[in-house]
Amino acid sequence: MEPLTPVIGTLPAGARNRITDVAGVTVGHCTLDEGDVQTGVTVVRPHAGNVYLQKVPAACAVINGFGKSVGLVQVEELGVLETPIALTNTFAVGAVAQAQIHEAIAANPEIGRSLPTVNPLVFECNDGYLNDIQAMAVDRGHYEAACAAAGADVQAGSVGAGRGMSSFGVKGGIGTASRLAGGYCVGALVLANFGTPESLVIAGRHVGDELAARLAAPATEPEKGSIIIILATDAPLDARQLRRLALRAGAGLARTGSVYGHGSGDIALAFSTAYTVPHHAAEPMPFMPLLHESRLDPLFRAAADSVEQAILHALWQAVPVRSRDGHRRQALLDVMSELRNPT
To answer: Its Enzyme Commission number (predicted)?
Structure first.
């Protein structure tokens, strides 16, 4: 029987309790599990069409900027996505960005000629403890495989970009969840690679000291990880409002025990599927009544709850991984088996 994850908050989840409960959003993974190579690529597609021609309103919030992502400057300036969102390891950012450019050119051959260039969007976390990151094993084909695998049924745990990630001294990885609020859906997907063992909080209960004791973890171990948080919603929000939504990801992250440590790169991106922005000036801009500011609070709550829930899903669904130089990460539920079926 699959272990039950503690349920965060009182808001109802969507049908899948996944980011893909936001209509049109799909997720795909490509997992590399080959000896010392324990890494991968995860792709979030905001819609099934041509994202370069039909851009998606978006905004980012850099909670702590110890990261090496590509594409955030243009998202901040223009407030749109024009490629799918890619997640991978730190040293694979360049390869995946090139893969995104190739994909965009294949669909739009005049990019960089009669059309403007494209803004690839790649987020990263450092999986070098479990993965031989110097092998630079991720290539264009792995990004393409993740795109081809994109669907509504999202795997979580030690898959895709999450294969080599660690959280709280145990196995981290991909987590996802959703919440319904105010007549809309907010979905979250996280790449969890953060947290020291003694800091872990689960559904308001501090279990970090016990976890650290069982792992025999150094009490003064500094925070060296990161987390990437992707929020999707079908609420009609503009880029300014989406940045406000992205900032609330930090509330859900903090509830798990994170203090956004010096060595942690904590970045959130939020996008809306309620409308698209045409690339060509000859096409009419969308006329979309936006949600009033006074109606945002339920979405803020949904963002915080879905992020916290997604982090727990990453921990609950991760499997142990062993890799180079004898490095290994146990699954949280193997270390603390009493958490398997919370009351």
So the answer is: 3.4.11.25
> In which domain, by residue range, is 159 found?
19-280+292-332
Domain count, the chain: 1
Paired tokens of 101? 């450019």
Q: 272 an active-site residue?
A: no
Q: What is the pTM of this model?
A: 0.98
Reply yes or no on whether 178 is catalytic.
no
User: Is a pLDDT exceeding 70 seen at residue 342?
Assistant: no
Catalytic residue among 21, 234, 266, 305: 266
| SS3 readout for the chain | CCCCCCCCCCCCCCCCCCHHHCCCCEEEEEEEEECCEEEEEEEEECCCCCCCCEEEEEEEEEEEECCCCECHHHHHHHCEECCCEEEEEHHHHHHHHHHHHHHHHHHCCCECCCECCCCCCEEEECCCCCCCHHHCCCCHHHHHHHHHCCECCCCCECCHHHCCCEECCEECEEEEEEEEECCEEEEEEEEEECCCHHHCEECCEECHHHHHHHHCCCCCCCCCCEEEEEEEECCCCCHHHHHHHHHCHHHHHHHCCCCCCCCCEEEEEEEECCCCEECCCCCCCCCCCCCCHHHCHHHHHHHHHHHHHHHHHHHHHCCCEECHHHCEECCHHHHCHHHCCCC
Of 226, 258, 306, 323, which is the active-site residue?
A: 226
Annotated catalytic residue 264: yes
What pLDDT digit, counting tens, does each position of 28-79 carry? 999 999 999 999 999 999 999 999 999 999 999 999 999 999 999 999 999 9
